[in-house]
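task queued by scheduler; priority normal; single chain, no ligands, no partner chains; default sampling; output format set to structure tokens
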Amino acid sequence: MNNGSDFLNSRNNETKEEILYNEWIPMSKFIIILFVFVIAVLISTAITTSIYAPTTRVYMLPIYALLCLFFVLIGINYRGIQITLTKNEIKIEFGLLNKKTILIDELVASEVIQATIGKYFGLGARIGVDKSLAFITNFGDAVKLTYDQDKLFVFSSTDSQKICNILNEYIENK
């Protein structure tokens, strides 16, 4: 008797087999240290303010608490990029809100570039000077995709050349 588990197992195996590349790239250590520093400054300011100006404690502590919560949630949300490449698509997820899926059939070119502060003005989800959408976790090697003839997308990777080799092979065989 088949209870549906065979279908689920075959579907899971099929999904696992078609993944050509999978990578998790954490946010730069500098950004993590910066977030911890900002939260520590907010907490120490809240404690100092409540000691030296106890009358402001009622309305300042909730403000400091909300600011700390905001920075903690932003840090957790943008802690890294998940890259999944299959024979049909490349999916890049950067936090809960920033997701990009590009079909392999739409790709025109892929190349390794250097993600610099001059091109993207910082880390995170950015628009580059070349009008590309970029998900950057650190400055260094990144993959630049051209799709739909003139749209550009850039993302950080620790093995950009391997991703470009896989994608260029599929682009050439279209």
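post-processing summary
- Strands lie at 19-26, 80-86, 89-94, 98-103, 107-115, 124-127, 133-136, 140-147, 151-156.
- The helical segments are 5-18, 29-52, 57-77, 117-120, 160-172.
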